[in-house]
Amino acid sequence: CNQKQQSMMKFSLLFATCLVGAxxxxxxxxxxxxxxxxxxxxxxxxxxIQEIQAARTAFVLCFAGALGSAAIGREAIPVTIREWQKTxxxxxxxxxxxxxxxxxxxxxxxxxxxxxMSILSNNMxxxxxxxxxxxxxxxxxxLRFESLAQANAExxxxxxxxxxxxxVMGINKNQAAPRVAEQKMALFKQDLEVLRENSRFTKTVxxxxxxxxxxxxxxxxxxxxxxxxxxxxxxWHGFDHMPASxxxxxxxxxxxxxxxxxxGNPDPSDAFPMS
Length: 275
Description:
Layout: H1 2-23, H2 46-67, H3 69-74, H4 76-89, E1 101-102, E2 111-112, H5 113-120, H6 126-132, E3 143-144, H7 145-151, H8 157-167, E4 175-176, H9 178-190, H10 192-232, H11 244-247, H12 268-271
Antiparallel strand pairs: 1-2, 3-4
Helix pairs in contact: 2-10, 5-8, 6-7, 8-9, 8-10, 9-10
């Protein structure tokens, strides 16, 4: 009997210990007050908080634009560089027939009239060039620069590039409609001055379009950075006196300390304080 009582006492003691441990989970435990994500937010009035929230909304829109449609436009930059490098690589390829130099811009070596006339007088038609020298991945039925170059492999390749550029509109173009190509080549053959004028016009249009594109992309990036700055780092002064302010105590080293994660909710009554 004593042994049974002792067992019961041990069980009761164990149960009581478990009960006390379980009930401790429901006892409020005092913890130190959590600090706000940024001490800067403590001194912000409602108008400032509203400006931060508006800047964050604008940043999302600018960021979406910079990564969306603007990203497509950015592809023109490496394409332009690549095509410019390809044109420079044509220097010295093919044999020049000499003659009068044609005043063209944007080529690594002079373009001569005899070379251009040799290309324009090729016995093959544009359609025959397309069929004889197909290019992988090209749109069916279109004349590619590579096809025109192979059809005039012995001629100065810079001159071939110059003729093709005068046919197409803009820069970085490597294909042309065959009907348009034949019409323009026949026109150039009659008067090389037309080729010169056409080449300059198409390059002007292409460079202008590229400049406008870069301006739009630059504006999109500017507004994205501007709203990022005012939305999350409103008290940062790294841009105040560029470029010195970017590298002194106001600049990059002070950026994280100015970060505002949550500015809080504005009080509408404090947005426009009355004196």
